[in-house]
Amino acid sequence: MRKYIAIFKSQIQITFAYSAWFWASMISAVFQLIILFYFWHAVYQNSDTIGNMNIKQMITYVMIATILGKFMNGAGSQLAGDIRTGQIATELMRPYNLLHKLMAMDLGGKTSDFIQSAVPLLVVAGLFFSITLPESLTAGILFVVSSILGILLAGVFDLIIGLLAFWTINTWGLRILRNAIVLFFSGSLIPISLFPPSMQLISQYLPFQSMVYVPVSIYTGAISGQDAWMAMGAQLFWIVFIYAVLRASWSQALRKVTIFGG
Amino acid sequence: MIEVKDLSKDYIILKRKPGLSGAIRSLFIREKEIKQAVDHISFEIKPGEVVGYIGPNGAGKSTTIKMLCGILTPSHGEIRVNGVVPYQNRKQNAINIGAVYGQRTQLFWDIPVRESYELLRHIYEIPKNDFEARMKHFTEYLNLGPILDIPVRQLSLGQKMRCELAASFLHNPAVVFLDEPTIGLDVAVKENIRKFIREMNHLYGTTVILTTHDMEDIEQLCQRIIIIDNGSILYDGDLVAVKERFGHQRTIHFEMPQTDHFKLPASLESTVDVAEITESRVSLLFSSRDIKGAEVIAIMMAEYEVNDLTIKDTSIETIVKEIYERGI
Ligand SMILES: Nc1ncnc2c1ncn2[C@@H]1O[C@H](COP(=O)(O)OP(=O)(O)OP(=O)(O)O)[C@@H](O)[C@H]1O
Ligand SMILES: [Mg+2]
């Protein structure tokens, strides 16, 4: 465990070191929030509520969801790169589990991203776009826990996509598909509750709404009480399930490297 | 330290006919070809030995080393490294071994070298005192001082290789595998690296297995060599014996304005072979036991106009060829 913590810490440092990148992504994120603000104001021009949400609730939802949505990537592309370049061979000679190492790196990067971009963005959203605070203190605490679960879920899911590099040469197309699906079905663009009923039904059986929609709905109070606990149970289930699939495909992939030589 | 018994590795290569129709066909019919990269080899290496593992390109050297590192599973046979079966117990094996692959990096790309080492300290769970003592020693020996604060991606090849080498010895492994550690380096850095390997071997008794195409590396470091070609071991034993047997082979390249009418001078016929004739160059092969190099040169100069000449020692490739053709 100590070694993974060391890797986690070092990744925090590395991510902090890229300051040019930081400012670029920060500025683009602020623009994104501005566009969201005016877009939804235009949409609400002719009606007071859309799908039971008033303008204030909607702005709060989309802004929190957009910020949280920035944490839905993972170490998958690094894994795919290691596989493509053959660097995986040297990684396998290390006394650690490569999947856990990649997760530690990913979480380290996200921790520094949280401090240096999510926090300032939340402040900007609160000051200039007047998003509301969480429904209650409990909702606030559950939101934090649920967000962490959502981020972990997205992380293991991304590793599975990266792992596919063992079987297909081109993970680029897969990644674009993944990004589109996650963006839409996670609820980071619009709340799932605005989907047509049939789509909502499909979404219920997919892991993606556990990534963004669940935590943000807990924040806004759309999911509360018993439902909140159920939704978080579902998040946990998906993490365990996808992690199990990841481990199984990982050992298949390892067989492929160690027996066929890549 | 290392026991290898009857070890083989077959690669399965899926063949594909060229072009689009080939690509479509290969979806349905997969033609397999089996490439036997390592073919029933056996050897044993004792603690503290420095062994040169040599052979021409594609001989199976890297494949053997990958099996010893645990990243390839043998098709047949047994391996033990420091009592551990590498492919069954990869993580345990990882602690016992260090490795440098000439073309790959094992340092962390984005962070300064010093922090890479600091991370390795945690990953290999090296006690802090040991780590600091060894770091001090390595910094001095490999002259790492000026480059410790630079990120790995900004290092030159020679600087990087010195850092890699230090990284592979950092956790004091029982065995270190060096796959072409001097490839592409200048003479001074090569010297430095060889000195370091010798020192580590003396000081810590580290067992070293070295693959290289540089005869100089072998001569300066190894008491024993294993020659492999086409997956089979051709020779396993003393370096001195091989050198006595083959080290007297010389090749001299004569640069000449005209080679069209070249005929080997009569006085050289019994002792010298013509290795190659090109438009501007004649290469002669002989044994220093049969005739002195100076004499060959004198006779050639007397009969032909020669612009320039170079004398070549025996390369590993010629030794292998020689053993292959004539036996040891
Ligand atoms: N992953 C692989 N799949 C199929 N064939 C392979 C694979 N890796 C190596 N080979 C083949 O196995 C043989 C031995 O290769 P290996 O890399 O062990 O040679 P080597 O002795 O290290 O050569 P070099 O001096 O060029 O590094 C070669 O014919 C090579 O083409
Ligand atoms: Mg090789």
UniProtKB/TrEMBL annotation, chain A:
<keyword id="KW-1133">Transmembrane helix</keyword>
<feature type="transmembrane region" description="Helical">
    <location>
        <begin position="228"/>
        <end position="246"/>
    </location>
</feature>
<feature type="transmembrane region" description="Helical">
    <location>
        <begin position="140"/>
        <end position="170"/>
    </location>
</feature>
<keyword id="KW-0472">Membrane</keyword>
<feature type="transmembrane region" description="Helical">
    <location>
        <begin position="20"/>
        <end position="40"/>
    </location>
</feature>
<protein>
    <submittedName>
        <fullName>ABC-2 type transport system permease protein</fullName>
    </submittedName>
</protein>
<dbReference type="InterPro" id="IPR010390">
    <property type="entry name" value="ABC-2_transporter-like"/>
</dbReference>
<keyword id="KW-0812">Transmembrane</keyword>
<feature type="transmembrane region" description="Helical">
    <location>
        <begin position="176"/>
        <end position="195"/>
    </location>
</feature>
<dbReference type="Pfam" id="PF06182">
    <property type="entry name" value="ABC2_membrane_6"/>
</dbReference>
<feature type="transmembrane region" description="Helical">
    <location>
        <begin position="114"/>
        <end position="133"/>
    </location>
</feature>
TrEMBL record, chain B:
<feature type="domain" description="ABC transporter">
    <location>
        <begin position="2"/>
        <end position="255"/>
    </location>
</feature>
<keyword id="KW-0547">Nucleotide-binding</keyword>
<dbReference type="InterPro" id="IPR050763">
    <property type="entry name" value="ABC_transporter_ATP-binding"/>
</dbReference>
<dbReference type="GO" id="GO:0005524">
    <property type="term" value="F:ATP binding"/>
</dbReference>
<dbReference type="Pfam" id="PF00005">
    <property type="entry name" value="ABC_tran"/>
</dbReference>
<keyword id="KW-0813">Transport</keyword>
<keyword id="KW-0067">ATP-binding</keyword>
<dbReference type="InterPro" id="IPR003439">
    <property type="entry name" value="ABC_transporter-like_ATP-bd"/>
</dbReference>
<dbReference type="InterPro" id="IPR003593">
    <property type="entry name" value="AAA+_ATPase"/>
</dbReference>
<protein>
    <submittedName>
        <fullName>ABC-2 type transport system ATP-binding protein</fullName>
    </submittedName>
</protein>
<dbReference type="InterPro" id="IPR027417">
    <property type="entry name" value="P-loop_NTPase"/>
</dbReference>
